[in-house]
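Supplementary Note 2. Why include the ligand at all?

Several targets in our set were suspected to adopt different conformations when bound, so apo predictions alone were not considered sufficient. For every target with a known small-molecule partner we therefore ran a joint prediction. The input for zinc ion is given below.
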Amino acid sequence: MTTNIILLGPPGAGKGTQARRLVDERGMTQLSTGDMLREARTSDTEMGHRVAEVMDRGELVTDDIVIGLIEEHMEKDRTNGFIFDGFPRTLAQADALARLLEKHGERLAAVVEMQVDDDVLVKRITLRATCAECGAVYNDEMRPIPSDGKCETCGSTEFKRREDDNEESLKQRLLEYYKKTSPLIGYYYANGQLKRIDGLGEIDEVAEEIDKVLD
Ligand code: ADP
Ligand code: ZN
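The joint prediction is reproduced in C-alpha cell form.
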C-alpha cells in the first residue's frame, strides 16, 4: 500500500505547485486531470474540440471523460503513491475514485483542502504565467518573470498563459467550484479524511503543512 492523497481547493489554490514538489521530493505520481485534458484538447478530433470549448468557458468536462482518463493513468503510472490534483471535482467522480482505489488495493491517506481567499485567487490566476518547459509558475505582481527573460528553474525563455486564465472563465470556474466541488469538503470530512491547511503562505510554508499531514 502506498500513500495516496487528494489536493482539494479552488482554482489558483496552489494544487499544481505543491503536487510538483511532492513528485520531486517523494517520487509520488501527479495525476492532474487539468493537464490530461489540456493534452487531450490538442488532438484534432471531435472530442478534442469539445473539451477545448468546455474548458475555455470554465465549465467542467463530463464525468465519464475525466474518470476514463484517471482510470487509464492509474493503470499505467503505478508508483510511490498518487497525488490527485484537480480530481475529483464532483461527487460522482469521488465515488468513482473510491471504486478505482479499491480495485487497486489502495486507499486515501488524506484529502488536503487548501484554503485561500477568493480575492487572492483572482489575483493569482489573472496575473499567472507558467514556464513552457518546466511548468514553474510566475505572477506579474507577486513573482514576475525575471528581467533577463529566463526561467529561474530551467533557464527556458518561453512562457505561456492559459486560455482560461481570464476574468470571465475564472468567474465560471469559481462558480463550478462552489456549486459542484465544494460539497466534497463535507463528504470527506464526514469520512474522517479531511485535513485543512492554510494555502495563503509562501510555497515552502504550505509545503511544510502538507508534509505534516503526510508524515
Ligand atoms: P484550475 O484548478 O486552475 O481551474 P485545472 O487545470 O485543474 O485548473 O482545470 C482546468 C479545466 O479543466 C477546468 O476548468 C475544467 O474545465 C477541466 N477539468 C479539470 N479537471 C476536471 C475534472 N476533474 N472534472 C471536470 N473537468 C475538469
Ligand atoms: Zn522553467
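The mean pLDDT is 94. The first helix runs from residue 15 to 26. Comparable summaries for the other entries are listed in the accompanying table.
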